[in-house]
Design brief:
The chain is mainly β. The protein is 2% helix and 53% strand.
Length: 239
């Protein structure tokens, strides 16, 4: 089964002031048997910021990758299966490891066709960037997988990002403190090494991390039943 986009974005939100949580209400309905992926970012002056958990919709969430590359900005990618789908207006909340975390942002996207169990294909180590360019590490994925990346940027002004084709942007958030978070994805029919990348409007440090998810196995077609026509004598019970 091929992975296809269900919603390019299911919504996003930000929390500028220091807080242990950041939440948003979904703005789209996730289809039954959907798969949700979040991009998350934050700033912690002391460094070592962490994403502790995600909650919402009664779903079981996994934090698939996170990191800060020894800076005060950090990012992560999280996901959840949504067998019954998810209604618009559902609150999704991210909890961080410190109440001093600020400039937080989170947003997400949904897909169908992702494996219903053991969906994680692979992840790539967080990469540090400087200047306007940002990019995930080159990530080796299986054929048919979707690669998702999130980037946290510290520009010092309201930032925006433009993603690099053929990747598609999910969301792009800048805040008054001068930080930004963006996330995007690419679905690849062939196995290989790929990146998700883009360009911020203002030169600054950034950190990007990525996770890839596998396509569901194709369902084998039921074998056809073929009948052999019996000779007329046998059909009538005659020798």
């Amino acid at each position: 089964m091929a992975i296809v986009i269900d919603n390019t974005t299911i919504g996003s939100g930000k929390q500028v002031a220091p807080s242990a949580t950041c939440a948003f209400n979904t703005t789209a309905t996730v289809s039954a048997n959907g798969f949700i992926v979040l991009g998350i970012g934050g700033f912690l002056a002391a460094g070592g910021g962490t994403i502790v958990s995600v909650a919402g919709g009664g779903l079981t969430w996994a934090i698939d990758k996170q990191g800060d590359v020894a800076t005060d900005i950090f990012c992560g990618v999280a996901s959840a299966q949504a067998p019954a789908g998810l209604t618009s207006g559902t609150t999704i909340t991210v909890t961080f490891g410190s109440a001093s975390t600020e400039a937080e942002a989170v947003g997400g996207m949904s897909f169908t066709g992702v494996a219903s169990s053991s969906a994680l294909d692979t992840t790539s180590a967080p990469t540090a960037g400087s200047g306007t360019a940002w990019a995930s590490a080159s990530t080796s994925i299986l054929a048919g997988s979707v690669l998702v990346a999130a980037c946290m940027d510290s520009t010092g002004s309201l930032p925006t990002s433009t993603i690099t084709s053929p990747s598609i942007e999910s969301f792009d958030i800048g805040d008054a403190v001068g930080y930004g978070v963006t996330a995007g994805y690419r679905i690849e029919p062939s196995a290989g090494s790929y990146t998700v990348a883009g360009t911020w409007t203002v030169s600054s440090d950034n950190v990007t991390c990525a996770a890839a998810y596998k396509a569901a196995a194709a369902v084998a077609a039921a074998p056809s039943l073929r009948f052999t026509k019996l000779p007329k004598k046998l059909m009538m019970g005659r020798p």
